[in-house]
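cache lookup: miss for this entity combination. No prior model stored, computing from scratch. Input as submitted by user K.M.:
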Amino acid sequence: MTLSISFQKKSKTKADTAILPVYKDNRLGTAATEWDKKTGGLIAYALKNQDIFKGKRNQTLAVTAPKGSPYTRFILTGMEDDKPQDIAAWTIAGGRLFSVLKAAGAVSAALFLENAAPEEAAQMALGLSLRDYSFDKYKSKPKEKGNKPSSLSKFEIVTDAASQATKLFEAARFATEGVHLARNLVNEPPNELYPESFAKIVQQELKPLGVEVEVLDEKKMQKLGFGAHLAVGMGSARPPRVVIMRWNGAKRKSKPVALVGKGVTFDTGGISIKPAAGLDEMKMDMGGAAAVVGAMKTLARRKARAHVIGIVGLAENMPSDRAYRPGDIIKSLSGKTIEVLNTDAEGRLVLCDALTYVQNTYDPALVIDLATLTGAIMVALGHEYCGTFANKDEVWSQLDSASRATGEKLWRMPLDEAFRKEMESGIADLKNLGSLGRYGGACSAAGFLEHFVDKGRAWVHMDIAGTAWVNSDKPLGPKHATGFGVRVLDRLIADYYED
Amino acid sequence: MKVNFTNTAPLQPGHALVIPVFADQDLRGALIPGITQDFADILALQRKFTGKTGEMLTVPVGGAVKSNVVFIGMGKPEAVTALSCEAAGGAIARAMAANEFQNATLLMGEHPVMTSMPAAKASAHIAQGAMLKSYTFNKYKTAKKNNPKPVLTVQLKQNADMAERIYAPMHAVNKSVFFARDLANEPPNELFPKIMMNRIRNELSPLGIKVDYLNVRDMEQEGMGALLAVGKGSSREPVLVVMEYDGTKGGDKTVPLALIGKGVTFDTGGYSIKPAANMDAMKFDMGGAAAVVGAMRAIAARKANVRIVAAVGLAENMISGNAYRPGDIVRSMSGKTIEINNTDAEGRLILADAMTYIQKKFSPKTMIDLATLTGACRVALGTAYAGLFSDDESLVADIMDAGKAIHEYTWQLPLHEIYNMAMKDSHYADLINSASIGGGASTAAEFLNEFVNEDVRWAHLDIAAMASGSRNHPTRPDVIGNAFGVRLLDRLVADHFESGLTPSVILKPNLAP
C-alpha cells in the first residue's frame, strides 16, 4: 500500500486534485460553489458545455484548473440528492474514485465531502484503500525519476466528522490488510507458491501478530489418517500440508468459530486433466485457503475479542506416475470410504478431512468452509454472487446481514437429502462426483461435504469459484484475485461472535 | 387409474390387498381380525421394510388371505400429512405397476393411532398420490394402448362418502395434470402449434374458459416480431393462445393474475443448433405452456372463485431457408429491439411478446411465467428444484410455500443489475438475447424483466430441469413428461388468489369436477 489517507476538518495538505461534490441536476455543493467563484465561473461553464454528467451517483467530470490555481484539476463527483441506502455503496464509491484519480494521473487529492456521516466517510476511505492494490512483484522495476511519487500517494478527506471518521477508518482498514494478503497469495505463481511455501508465508504473516500456527506435514497427516487429502497431493513432487491457526481474543471461555479453506495451490485436474485453455488460472484454486488466512490476519490485527480456529488444507493436484486415479477408493479421516470418480473433484477431498479434524479437535460452535469448488456455481450465479449453503437459518441470516454490510454478495443455495443421496457410491460409502455430474454440481458438492458435518453442528459452505477470481477490473480491486470472503467473515465474527 | 371408495365390504377375490403399516412395523389399525398376527409375522421375517413413508413390500400370502399383499409404509402415525399420504399413494401405484395388478383394495380401516388426520382425509390424499403416480403414456404402444386402467378400491370402516367428496376436487386437479402430461409426451411430429391450440380449446372451452388465439397475421398486426422470428423457420406456423377464466362471474373487474407459458413444441436450437445427444427430449420444451393450460383447466374444473387470464406462445424452432439467423435484429411488440446472438435462446423471445400482449390487454396485477428456459438452471439446481426469480419477496414466499405443500419445490435465484446490463450489451440493438457472463438462468430472467411493466408483480419459474426426467419422485412418473407446475399454480391460486374461500373450504362437495 502506498496511499496514505487522512481526514481533516479543513484542507491542510497541498494537493494537485480537488474533488468537489455536485448534486442532482448539477447543483453545486459548497466547495464547488467556492471554487466556481474563485475561478470566475469555470465549473458552471464546464457543466453547461456537456450533457453526460448530471450529478448522478458515481458520475465524475474532470475540469482542468486555470493557471495560478493551487490545484492542477478539479474532479466533480455526482452525489445525487439522497444518500445511498446501504453502507456498502460508499465503499464502492471510494473504490471508483481511486480509479478515476489514477486515470487522471493525480498524485495527491483532497475530497471535500459534505454532509457525510463519519461511518460513510470511513467506508469511502476503506474503498480507496481496498482498490489501492497491484501485484507487480514479478515486474522488473522501472527506474524511478528521483524521489517523486508517480502514482496516487496522498488522499485527504475534508469533512466535519474528521475525528470520528479517523477512528472508524483505523479500525476498518485492518480488513484491507487481510484482503490484500489473500490477493497476494492467490496471485502468486504456482511455481513459487506450493503447500510448503504457503505454510511458511502463513507463519511469517501471522505468528508476529500473536496467532498460534501449527503445520502438519505429510508424515503427521499419514499418522492421523488424512487419507482423502493425501490422495489429492500424491501426484505432486511437492507434498501436502495442513496449517492450523489459532486466535483466541475472547475474554470468556467459548467454543470457537472454525474457518476451513481449500488450498489447492495448483489444480491440473490430475489424471482427469483439465483443458489447456485457462489452465493458468488454476493457481487460484487456493482462494478459499487465502481467504481464511486473510481473515485470520484481519482478526489478529484488530485484536478481535473472538475465539477463531483457521485451518487450510494445502495440496497440489498433479498427474504423474504416482498420482491418484479415477476408480481409486480412499479412506477419509472420518473413516468413511470414498470412490474417486474424477480426480478433478479434488477440493471436496481436501476439505472433508479438514472438516473432520477441526470438529474432532476443537468442537466448534460454527464451521464455515470456503472453497473454489465447482464450475457449476459459475454457471449458476456468474461472478456476482458467492453460492452459500447453510444448514441453520439463523446463521444464514447472520451471514446475509454481514454480506449486506460489506457488499460481498452471498446467495443462498439448497442443501437437500436428494443431493446427499446423490453422492452415495455402490462400491464405497461415498463417491466424489454426483450421478447427475454437472447438473446441480455445486449442490451435490455441498451434499458431499454435508456427509462430514457432525449432526446438529452449525455449518456453512461457501463456493467462491466465481467470486475469488475475476477477469476484469472491479470497483474495489484490479482484475484477477479479489480476496473475496475476508471482509464478510470478519464482519460476521465482529457482529455475532465476539464478547 | 380409477379410484373408488367403499365402506367395509367383503374382500374381492383376485384383488391385491394393500395394507398400510406405520413406522417400526406398527400394524395397529390393520383391518382384518384374526390375520393381523400373520402380517406381523411376515414383516418380522424380512429386513428391508420398516414402515417409513413411501416404502413398499409385495408378498403373496396363502391361508385365510390367499392374495397378493402390498405393505405400504405410512411413517409415524402421529406425523401423517397430506404429503406423506401422497407418497404412500405413489408407492401403491408403483407396486401395482411393477406387479401388473389390475385391481387392488386398500384396507384403510380406522387407524385410531393416526392422530394427525382423519382416515377419510388420509384416504383421499393417498388416492390422489396413487393416481398421479400411475400415469402412463401408452398411446403409441401397439400392444398396450387399449389396456384397461388399473382400479384402486379404498375401503374404509366408515365415511367412504366423505372421502369421496374430499377427493373430488383433487381428482379434477389430477385430470388436469394428466391433460398437461399428455401434451408434453406427444411426439413433436404429432404435436405442433396448431394441434396444441386445438387440443387446448377442445379441453378448456367446455369448462367455461374463453379460448382465443392470434395467428401469424394477427401477430404481425400486433408487432410481435420476437415471437414470430422464432417460428419462422418451421412450415408449421406459430400461434399465441389466450385464455380467460372468470369464476367471479364478472364480480372482479380487475385481473389479479396472469399466467404465461413457453410452448416451443420442438426446439432444434435453430441455426445455433443443439448437439445430437438427447435432442429428442426437446419435445418437452413446451413444458411451461403445458403447465399453464393444465393449471387453467384445474382452476376452472374446481370452479375456483377467481379471475385469471393466461397466454401460451406456441412455436417450433427449426432450421430452414426461412429460419431466423444469429445476427438478425427483431422488434418486439414492446418496441424494444433485440439482436439475436443465439437462435437457441428462443424461449425468452416468445415470452417477451406474450407478456407484453397480456399486460397491454388485461393489465394484470400479478404475472407469473413458466418456461423450460435454460440449461444453466439445471446446472445450478439439478433436478430437485425449479429456479424462481422475483423482486417481490412476498410472491417468492407464496410460490415456495405452495410448492412445498405439493412436492413441487422451487429455489430463489438472483435478479441483479449486472445480469441486466449484460443483456443490454449490444452494439446494434436495445437488447441481446443471450449473454455469456455466467449465471445463464439469471441473465435470461433479467431479459424477461425488461418486458415487465413497472406496476406488475412478476415471477419467473425456470422449469428446464423439472418438466421431464424425474426419478424416484413420489408422485411424478419416471423420466417422461410430468407437467411440473400444474399443481404448483393451482395451489398458489387456491392459497392466495381466490377470494371468499380458504383452501379447506374448497374441498366442499358441490365443487365436483
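stored under new cache key. Chain B is about 35% helix and 20% strand.
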